[in-house]
Fold this protein.
Amino acid sequence: MRIVSAVVAALLLFSGVASATPSRGVTGKILAQWTVGDRDYVVREITINPGGSTGWHHHDGTLYALVKKGVLTRTESDCTTTFVNRRGDTLIEQPHQVHIGRNLGTSPMVLEVLYVNPAGAPLSRDEPNPGCSFD
């Protein structure tokens, strides 16, 4: 009975997630993490395979990244603002900025990322496609 209750509770809790756009071809590995005061710091390596994407999402805190390999194409929720970041480029994503990251290239793209989030916040939160014609 506890298992059934837990499943029902999980379905109710996550019922709004169905409209989110899932990532595809993305893997991540946490390299380090620590908390100082009311902030969590997480260093993570993210790989997006050719044709892959992060899905639409936002972060509760600020994200700092370095493109270690390949090309990252990021599009904002207005569907027109696009940034192309190549190997060696750094980027900053501000809190609550809805966006998608895609690898439109033919080889894997690798990012090294530092997340600076409010303590206890997830690394990202899924969002629905804001109406863009891709993904």
Notes: The CA atoms of residues 35 and 41 lie 6 Å apart. The chain has one domain: 19-126.
